[in-house]
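We read letters as residues; the fold follows as tokens. Both lines appear below.
***
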Amino acid sequence: MKPDNFLQKTISWLFTALFFWVPLFFTPLNSELFEFNKIILVYSFTALITGAWTARMILQKKLIFKRSFLDIPLVLFLISQFSSTLLSIDPHTSIFGYYSRFNGGLLSTISYLLMYWAFVANCDIKDVKKIVKFSLISAILISIYGILEHFGHSFSCLMFGTGFNVECWVQKVQERVFATLGQPNWLAAYLTILIPVSIANSLNPAKKSGITQLLNYLIIFIFYLCLLFTQSRSGFLGFVLSFAVFWVILFIINHHQIKSIIRPFLILNSIFLILVVVFGSPFSQINKYLYYKSYFSPNQTNTQQLVPITSLDGGISESGDIRKIVWKGAWRVFKHYPVFGSGVETFAYSYYNFRPIEHNLVSEWDFLYNKAHNEYLNYLSTTGIFGLGTYLLFICSFLYINLKSIFNFKFLISKQIPNPKSQLGQLEIRSIRNLSLALFSGWMSLLVTNFFGFSVVVTSLYFYLIPAFTIVLSKPEDQSVHKSLSPGTYHLTPYLIIPVFFAFYILHFTLNLWRADFFYNQGQKLSKTGQFYESYQKLHQAVKISPNEPIFLSEISVAAGNLALIADQQNQASSSSELTQLAINYSDKSLKISPANLNLYKTQVKLFYTLSTIKPEYLNKTIEAITQAIVLSPTDPKLIYNLGLLYGKAGQGELAIKTIEKSVEMKPNYFEARNTLAIFYEDIGENQKAVEQLKFLIKMSPENKETLENKIKQLEQ
């Protein structure tokens, strides 16, 4: 086999492996089980694919690149991401992505776009078919995984050593399955992409045997059942759109042969209807008409029938209400950073600067929101009108070119099919057109799921690569750019070292990212159990590998601070002093690298509070740190409340009361703050005010009524 052919086949199989393994891959060894491992795999495959592509160019002595209609929108989008990163409030986060989410940073975007251009330049129709085939196999495995979770058996728990059950998960995985994707909505978004593809596979005119058709319908059945078990409303809506788009366009382009597709259309709709009747849907409005759901699915509760929260109760807020508040905050961020946004992937920081005060009245008021839960608003707030504009330009460009190609598909594809006018040629054209339509329909579902959520590694992979697939499926083979890299002949071996070195360098970099997180995860767990010496050792290894990762520096500062406290308790003053300074240096360095990261300030507050038990003067440093955190998140009542507690500890009682009163104004149903206020009021002799707080607590916590009423009686005597 010639070297160039070998490299081309290597690229083809690397893409196939990418789409097979990324949805499946996760490990229990890292701080984030799912997304981190998937993005590491994406970086690794990007390095190998780009390296092989570069090697092909060197061997052929020409630029191997195929122009497409989407090149300009994608280049403009990439420029917008670079611009927002350069002007970001936190460039480190913009480059690497938010730690724990990872997807969406500049590096991940570069990876997806490189793979887009690599695929268009190096792959053909056979490669698309092969990738689709292995994608469906991967999705079958994942769907079976999810279905078993619904019935109380998780392969994850078997792998984690707790048995073939669901006891390893804190989440109620039986109610909302997530398999190897990590979150029900992400699994649903993934399945909605591939359900139309599986339907197109069942319509393949070249595969009409009874057993084959039965297997095709079984695959669709498995995918749809797993989708229902995610209980994802956004996923279900995405499926409805993709299903409608697929069949409407299919009926239009096959209006002369409409009878041939009526039968599968009716069969599939019957299957879907029966499954909804038996197992229910994600919508309570539909489920109230389905009388058999409780019989067939006894372990499933309707997770969508949530109790709206008020300012007094402690119920669970409806997710739609929470989203509206977060979207309002995202709009405020955009108004402050209208052109380039606050910076790629910085929503976790910029949102809290503009967080609506009504967020304090929902059940998830103290959760961290690192995404806007709307991909479009997320881009608008973090990359501004330039970022969102180029993103929408890419979407609209693909919609236009793909719809145009689908309705003109027979002419385009006939240039790539041998004997296109023969019966086999016509069947092949129909099969490829159905596949292209299915990929487009699946891609359309992402426009819905991203509206109610955000993209993750798997969905981003399909979002950027499906356009490449459809271009390859419909594009004639005469669009290559053949530009000589150098005149004359030269010895090639030295030049091949360049892509090999590049690939291995990126792989080494990626492996170190994984290793550093592995040690960070171990250190974090040890720190939580109070094993600070062992924790420090593991975290030191993480910092040694990635010395400029602020999350690692922040975590190791806590371990060092606790070691300083232990040394002080053991009367080792010199060691305690050295460890104290080391802890402060680590914390300061983390904030220097990531100055807008609210969590780093919260960690510094913990650090200085720990150190204040060694030297009381560090209490002032604690107050300074939490004051700076409040500057970054001015509507967070918990920060205000904790500042009040610190004032109380510092002997500033009057200031403590005023500060905690402010936290109650921000969050009237703040139980801990009102309880603390009652204690402070009692201490200064303001018994009537203390009674008022206790009466309010009775409304909030009726189960403690007797205890609180006894306390009120004592105060009124």
About this structure: The radius of gyration is 29 Å. Strands lie at 62-66, 480-484.
